[in-house]
Design brief:
Layout lengths: L3 H4 L7 H25 L18 H28 L4 H24 L9 H25 L1
Helix pairs in contact: 2-3, 2-4, 3-4, 3-5, 4-5
Length: 148
Amino acid sequence: MENLFQAMPQLAAYSPSFVACAVLVLAVIIQGFLTGALALAPGHQLAGRPLKNGQEDRSFRVMRTYANSTENLPMLTLALVLAIVASVPAVAVNWIVGLHVAARLAHWAIYYSGIGKEGEAGPRTIAYVIGLLLNLALAVAALFYLVA
């Protein structure tokens, strides 16, 4: 049986984007497991309840990181599909998606480590904004190619 790249060779140029997206999906799945182990352990956060404590509490950061990742993953995935459907050049799509994934993984690592102070625009915010802008660039490129 053929895989999608064999059946549709024009998609092969986008394979780095699919790989990067798969890495991000795995990271979010790992975050889900870590949320259970690190944040929902006895004495920490309670499932379905408002978060306790603040940025200084690792269980708070673990829960917020996972929630942030699950909020951002669908937007990247949809922008990626739209960019491919619109025939945005593969080189641009691959770079944007790869950099977005790097920014998201950096955001995760920075947030878990507790670097930065609450309410301060530090490295975590910078990593988040970079990922957000890259996702925006991908969506705008898709829209441009769809209407052009």
